[in-house]
Amino acid sequence: MKKLLLLFGAFTFLLISCSSDDDTPSEENLVFPKTVSYLYPNPSLGTNSTSTLKLDGKKIVDITDSDSKTIFTYNGDIITKQEVFDIDEKGNKTADKVVEYSYENGKLKTRIHRILFSKEYPNGEYIIKTVYTHNSNGQISYINYSINAKTELEIQTSVGTLTYKDGNLVKEEQTFKSVTTTLVFEYDTKNNPLKSILGFDLLFNEVSYFGKNNILKTTVTSSEDTKVATYLTSYTYNENGYPLRRTSFDGGGKSIEYEIEYTY
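Structure (tokenized):
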């Protein structure tokens, strides 16, 4: 099942295991999504689901769907932790994933992602640490480390850079085992449904599809392959320039992989 938040960005996880002023909401008229629904044309591609967002002012409190709940912790205006719990048919919660964030001078410095909790591994069996460096040219570079849960030994697994323009991630490069994968993103000029949630802008590519605007095209290239993969996305908007429906197509641009519906 796809989640609203990628607790460990899909790009990274797989490797390791122009804005419009007319569409900018005023401070007095901020818009937040109430539900986000994922729809799949074929059951083999995924399971339909609906996530409900609970907010306290501009802060996200939790996100709940039929079998999980993500809870957010703030310190002032910054998100310091998100915890994901699996929920069984009786409503019992079991810890699934935990991500903790630390900041320096108001900017994200480290992210520690833990999964697979048990009596033997109360702090998670698999731990990934990401360290960010904010460069003078505006790029953010990062290093991913795998941490041994028992010895706490850190081993570097991959490195990458994030490039932002006008509040949107326009390019990500990551090198894993000498292979560099590059993603280039193109955007519309409309409002991203998550843009007004406090703290999301500090988490970089942690939040799925987050930016000031909405992704129209994703181009993926690899240093070990001459092929170029292109993924297109189309939208239906409401009168305020927020997406009501997002349609994502496969690399051929003809078949629908999934759709996302938003309510406000």
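The longest strand covers residues 225-237. The mean pLDDT is 90.
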